[in-house]
Amino acid sequence: MSTLKITTIIFDLDGTLSDTNKIQSAVEAEILNRYGVKISAAEIGRRFSGVKTSEFFRELLRGQDLDIDGIIEEKWRRVISLAKREAGPIPGALELVEYFKEAEFGLALASSSRKEYVMAVLNKLGLKDKFKTITSGDEVEKGKPDPAIFLLAAKKMGVRPEECLVFEDAMSGMTAAKRAGMKCVGLIARDDEREYPADVLVHDWADMENIKSILK
């Protein structure tokens, strides 16, 4: 087992720092239902949280003679517009980022979402300048649970995967972090009884005792 010290914190965005999962899921459900895919925003959240839009839209719309690229573009136009007005922080997220910033860890962000959207959300939250590097889903061929986005984030930071601690809220993201060889803290709902692969699970970012335990 590696004994390398954690030097770098990698944050996911939607559902981890920002409350924007609900914005994305609502728009995605409306669009997919329009094309005959009967799925709710809640089901999208359960099944596809953290997964690249291009991947699960192509899966669900497979076999139809549709301009899927155009449909995906519509989704991003709408969620970017909504995020600029409505995005807010997950409780405790801003304080969590500030804690690690003040403790002089290297901070990175790795989101499956499109870069334009990521920057819109970070601007709304006042977090744009907190991260040394920002990696988006545009930069990798495969999205979470593939580890590519976290491995690229580590490469940009100039560190080994074993030096990274990932903060995530999605099963796909936690799985990707562990596949990348990184430690992971997962944020889950109190009534969520699923098994998650994160090293530490918390229900609130204010649970600093458990979060700090992984750094020891």
Automatic annotation (TrEMBL):
GO terms for molecular function: hydrolase activity; metal ion binding. It comes from the Bacteria. Pfam families: HAD_2. SUPFAM superfamilies: HAD-like. Coiled coil: none annotated. Its cofactor is Mg(2+). Keywords: Carbohydrate metabolism, Hydrolase, Magnesium, Metal-binding. InterPro entries: Beta-PGM-like, HAD-like_sf, HAD-SF_hydro_IA, HAD_2, HAD_sf, PGP-like_dom2. Belongs to the HAD-like hydrolase superfamily. CbbY/CbbZ/Gph/YieH family. NCBIfam families: HAD-SF-IA-v1, HAD-SF-IA-v3. This is HAD family phosphatase. It comes from Candidatus Falkowbacteria bacterium RIFOXYA2_FULL_47_19.
